[in-house]
Specification:
- The chain is mainly alpha-helical.
- Helices cover 67% and strands 2% of the residues.
- A hairpin with a 2-residue loop joins β2 and β3.
- α1 crosses α5.
- The longest helix has 22 residues.
- The chain is globular.
């Protein structure tokens, strides 16, 4: 894609797609039509110039591509009805989607729309992440600890269910928002974590994803000020993001205990603590905020961090939490204690390709003075992010494992 089209893809994909989903009621059709519009932009903009309003140009192009696709799809029973609706919209220069909600942001509307209660929770979140356009199927698969083909099937099933069940894919009215909030929060946090520690690629941090997740968190806090977990999630993202700039030095990963604290964003930390004061009930995000706050202290009280991971495991147990608990326990009480917690996870066949598990295993073995080469080799083989891979190779060399150039 050319520069202007790339910028439009980054800035306007979700807005255009959200609008098309609202008009067509068909996620698959909307995705295909939106992709067609961007392909058309690649051909037209270098020739005709970038339009004054790229989003409006793309929306109009996508709408016309949707009409073309519907005309070619003779097997759809409701083709005539949807064609008529789209044709009416096509006659309007700037059609406005129905607004029966107080959500004023296109992307946030899309998140709430995709988190439909008729879909199972995992499918809601996966479909939302895919539809938002920021994450690929492979990235979503890594977030859910499943293979890429398995995630692709899950997404296909979700879209098929929406189409076959004729689920109305519309922005929910305000009264239905709390029922969808849990999935929405999960989506926002997965976007942030993918931005903060990219699962693949040559960069460790994807700044636009971090910024977008925090922006959505702030919008949620304004929209639903009485929801404690909304403020807790916003606080969590802000406190973690305080250290964003210090996590890299000339492209090299910098672990927490080696970071230059003068590069931490104090204003963001203050905003995070302010958000935390509005989180009045104990929940999973609030516990994670407490951990993030402890990690900003000098020195870090790792015994308290380990205790909090234990509390988090009781509220929301997952392999992610258990691996982090083992790492914190190793720092608090010695690597052998961390290895004890890690042992049952290493025996689980379903976690065999979970990279953080093997990276943590390797680090605990190295710190315990035990052979760590094989664990590092496994972790390096499972790492798709080049910055993380370089850091693992550096540590492997320190442990006498594979060479730095392998």
């Amino acid at each position: 894609m050319t520069g202007p089209v790339e910028r439009a893809f980054r800035d306007d994909w979700a807005t255009v797609l959200a609008t098309l989903i609202g008009w067509t009621g068909d996620v698959q059709l909307a995705e295909e039509a939106t992709q067609d519009a961007f392909v058309a932009a690649v051909a037209a903009w270098p020739r005709d110039g970038v339009p004054d309003n790229p989003a409006a140009w793309l929306t109009t192009a996508a709408k016309r591509r949707a009409i073309d696709r519907l005309r070619r799809t003779r097997s759809q029973a409701d083709r005539a009805e949807r064609l008529a609706a789209l044709a009416r919209l096509d006659e309007q220069e700037h059609p406005v989607p129905p607004a029966d909600t107080s959500i004023g942001d296109d992307r946030l509307r899309l998140v709430f729309t995709c988190c439909h209660p008729a879909l199972d929770p995992a499918a809601r979140v996966a479909l939302t992440l895919r539809t938002l356009g920021g994450l690929s199927t492979a990235e979503i698969a890594r977030a859910f600890l499943v293979t890429e083909p398995a995630m692709a099937k899950r997404l296909t099933r979700a879209k098929r269910k929406i189409a076959l069940a004729r689920i109305p894919y519309r922005v929910p009215p305000d009264a239905e928002l709390p029922a969808r909030l849990r999935g929405v929060l999960q989506v926002v946090y997965v976007i942030f974590t993918e931005g903060y520690a990219a699962a693949a690629g040559e960069q460790l941090v994807r700044d636009p994803l971090c910024d977008e997740a925090i922006r959505l968190g702030r919008l949620l806090a304004e929209l639903m000020p009485d929801e404690s977990e909304v403020h807790a999630l916003l606080a969590l993202m802000l406190l973690q993001d305080t250290r964003r700039a210090a996590r890299l030095d000339a492209g090299r990963y910098v672990p927490l205990d080696e970071q230059d604290r003068s590069r931490w964003d104090r204003a963001k930390a203050a905003a995070g603590l302010a958000a935390l004061r509005r989180a009045t009930r104990t929940g999973a995000y609030q516990v994670q905020v407490a951990i993030a706050a402890l990690e900003l202290q000098d020195p870090v009280e790792w015994d308290r961090v380990a205790d909090l991971y234990g509390a988090l495991a009781r509220i929301a147990s997952s392999p992610v939490v258990e691996v982090q608990r083992a790492a914190a326990t190793g720092l608090a009480y010695g690597p052998e204690h961390g290895l004890e917690l890690l042992a049952p996870l290493l025996a689980e066949e379903g976690l065999a390709r979970y990279q953080p598990l093997h990276a943590t295993h390797a680090e605990l073995l190295r710190r315990a003075g035990r052979p760590a080469g094989a664990a590092y080799e496994t972790a390096i083989a499972l790492t798709a992010n080049e910055v993380e891979k370089a850091e693992l190779r550096r540590r492997a060399v320190l442990a006498g494992g594979p060479s730095a150039s392998s």
